[in-house]
User: What shape does this take?
Amino acid sequence: MTTVSPAAMASAQTDGNGSQMSERPRTRIGGGLWRQALYRVLRSKSAILGLALITAFIAVAVFAPWIAPFRPGDNSWLDQVRPGQYPGPSAEHWLGIDPQGRDVFSRLVYGTRQSLLIGVVSVLLGGSVGVTLGILAGAFGGWVDAIVMRIVDIMLAVPSLLMAIAVAAVLGPSLTSVMVAIAVTSVPIFARLLRGQMLGQRASDYVLAARAAGLRRSTIIFSHVLPNSVTPVLVQGTLYLSIAIIDAAGLAFLGLSSPDPSTPEWGRMLTDAQDALATAPLLAMAPGAAIVLAALGFTLLGEQMREALDPKYHR
Amino acid sequence: MTSSPIHRKLLAAGVALGLAGLAACGADESAGGDGQTFVFASSRLPTTLDGAYIYDNESQRVIYQIFDRLTNVEPGTSELTGELATDWDVSDDGLRHTFNLREGVKFHDGTDLDAEAVCFNFDRLYELEGQAQTLAEYWKIAFKGFKEDAEGNSGDSRYESCEVVDPTTLTIHINEPYAPLPAAVANIGFGIASPAALQESGWAVEASGDSLDFVGKFGTENPVGSGPFKFESWDPGKNVTLVKNEEYWGDPATIDTLIYVPIDDGQARRQALERGEIDGYDNVAPQDVEALTSAGYAMEERPPSNTGYLAMNRDFEPLDDVEVRRAVSHAINRDALLQANFLEGAVKPTGLLPPGFTGSDGDVPQYEYDQEKARELLSGADAEDLKVEITYATEVTRPYMPDPQGIAETFKSDLEAVGFEVTLVGRPWSPDFLGGIRNGESMMYIVGLLPDMSDPANFMTLMNAGPGRWGTMPDELLDQITAAETAPPEEREELYRALNAAVMEDAPMVPYVHAPTHLAFREGTSGFVPSPLFAESMATVEMSD
Assistant: This one.
């Protein structure tokens, strides 16, 4: 996949913050960082493509019952299936029929809901825990920082998919455990990123000035340091959505998702298509393409957001 | 600073590949000796080679080659014939079965197979204790209980004694008429073993945790019978090797060495055959049959003698209501299910009994696919919520369920179309799935019955298998089952016809298939006779080099 390594990005962000101070006045003049960023994002073709993919993805998820021509569990076409032979695409069934006599396109559409739900919830969950840990480490420093960062190091030492599998296996196969599993793997990334940002900000002149002015530590942290550190986390969140969607499919593929196999889910559709790969490759290609496109959408947008929001990339 | 996750993933993959490579280097091909060697892949190796303790086809197929039984079925049919017994006779009161033995038969260890040896075998089974009793399913089918139950009380057995009349004649005494007895002792559980080997190695078995500990080594190291193949070696997890019995009383085998190897995955079995690593395998996936046949492999079809069914445990609401059970029966589109999952030889059941079994040809209530009718039955039923749970087995394929999950999904779709709310639960075949249905944990479950003997009692006894499977069955039906079992032979046909109808009237299950099964062999293999009862000898198999 074309996703950018989160840790590498974290370090890129940390390196970049040195120049942020000097750029601040300019972004202010331009009508605010966010407005400027939006303007820059909309000028990028790949960002537009990413945004379009995500919008389509969200629309399909929200309006699934109207978009899908049939219910995902409707097996009215079972009588057209023979062992090892499944009807291919037709006017009525755009992506053909699966071995259980169900419309593949409808299942794909409903599967979007699962993927989006897992992606968003797990990133929100992982992000909030990660941000909390990051604030603790970044704000307090010292032994709190040391403990939090050792925990983060331990978590980073385990390959993320392996960790997700372990967590999902311990919690048992369910939608919730998939969300928790993916969230857990994202915690260290968010924590490390935010901590780095905050440490950088803490050393900056405006913080020094605030401290000299006698502001309380909590005020400095929450009113000044945090708002100036959080942008990369938002970017990371967008990028991590693509990883979450891929990991969710991976876990479903390994049978660690919803315990009911009839739930329309991209990863599960891939698993079930395995045996028919030689005769009906479309059964695997359709969910595969959906996973790639969704992940691509978030990656493109995330990348462009990062560039747009990071003063280092200003041209 | 740690490396990036992508680097770590790559590293992990590299390590994994390296380990896989090492493992591959460690594996080696099993070497055959001189003469013709035939390698057969089954989904797993036997549990033990002591027929007394097994109740599964993978054990049966190996044990069958080593032991002979008093009676057997004609190859490829369910017609009863003599094997070690040349003929037999039943007394008028139905309590004495006298068998005349073939003369001059010897066990692999050179000892004589005479009436005394046969009676030793029957008495051994009758006197089984503790854990052994729970395993001895075939004995229980034929003789109910044992000499003593776990508390040391009388075990409520049908068996009385085995009397040696002369060296080639014996009489089995029972205390209630049981017409299927000659058919029942054709089972693999009644393979006649060498008393010398039994006494030398012992046959004790103990439960150790979830698994079994075969303390007596007869079944694992020293299984001595009189069959066409002799036990050679057993490498646990890898293979069981048998060699030709040169002194066999019948026609000796043409194969010299017979090796069984376990390959649990159907695709992997096919690939192993295509690579020439094995010479044959069982349970060819329906979608592979045509491809392998046209590629020149020898394909054998076992006649459909099994029944696959969706069981309903009536101790769970709303299945306590017979109207709901009938609605389930009407909701399932069995024609489409059969077409989609099975080959042409598959038969849509009219009742529990497969075609060809005594009593299967009667007039039985039919539940044709009719969604309207199902909805109607459900609206009349006093079932408030129609939430049901279907348990299916994972990590297994059976002739009647080549794809348990797929079939479960089909049932779910069919039932939801008429208003049920269905949850699917997958559980590993053994022990979770099988244990669950025995203990009454499963509300609805997909399973089937492969027959053990050529008698309808085999199927009907299933309905009397305790409350775990079905919930509390009506007493009249259970009485009817017992009556049919103990009735004189001439009345049985009519009784089983009535019983087959009575069972379907009560709708405890939806029988959805009698499925044929397929075995694939290397090109040029001949002589294998597929049997509806898995009574399949490898002695007749010939290979062309």
Remarks:
- Chain A touches chain B through 33 residues (CB under 8 Å).
- Chain A has one domain: 59-70+97-308.
- Confidence is low (pLDDT under 50) at residues 1-30 of chain A.
- Residues 104-140 of chain A form the longest helix (37 residues).
